[in-house]
Design brief:
Blueprint (H helix, E strand, L loop, with lengths): L27 E2 H8 L3 H9 L6 E2 L5 E3 L1 H16 L4 H23 L3 H49 L24
Antiparallel strand pairs: 1-3, 2-3
Helix pairs in contact: 4-5
Length: about 180
Amino acid sequence: MSVSQPPVPAAEGGASPASASVEPEPLLRIQEVADRVGLTARSIRYYEEVGLMKPARSMGSYRLYDEEDIARLGYIKGLRDDAGFSLAEIGQLLEDENARALIGERFRETRDPRERRELLVDGMARIDRQVSTLKAKIDRLQSMVDLARARRAHLEDHLAELEPGSTVKAHKAPTAPDAPAEPAR
């Protein structure tokens, strides 16, 4: 699964007038959703415990999920598995995305220029925070790629040393930026 666009939360207060005449979508129970998304029911319950999900509840207190919940779980799974984000990072990204959707709704409702400006500035700040989070992940991954390439170059030097008549001398093994330097021998 690849990381796609985050699901946009439904408007507070229910369906829009345009969708009011459409049959309500079926709600699924947790195991059906787990099978569909490729997660365990325990993971889904944990995501609810840490505030990443808030499913509806049946009269019998069963968790019930709609298509928006399923899309959100797919997005969480992609961020966690494909992009390696922590649940705290995912929570922040989802919080900003939810707030941006609410900002968009409020922006469309108001005609007050001052309020619209404040909403736009808040939305841009949230996007800037998302970009910062994503950029930090890219930087960490790039650092890991650079270190792996340096380790490969070190092995290439050792391989070249084995060639008859070679003047190549293997350099000191690369270390991770946070790792202590190897003691001199």
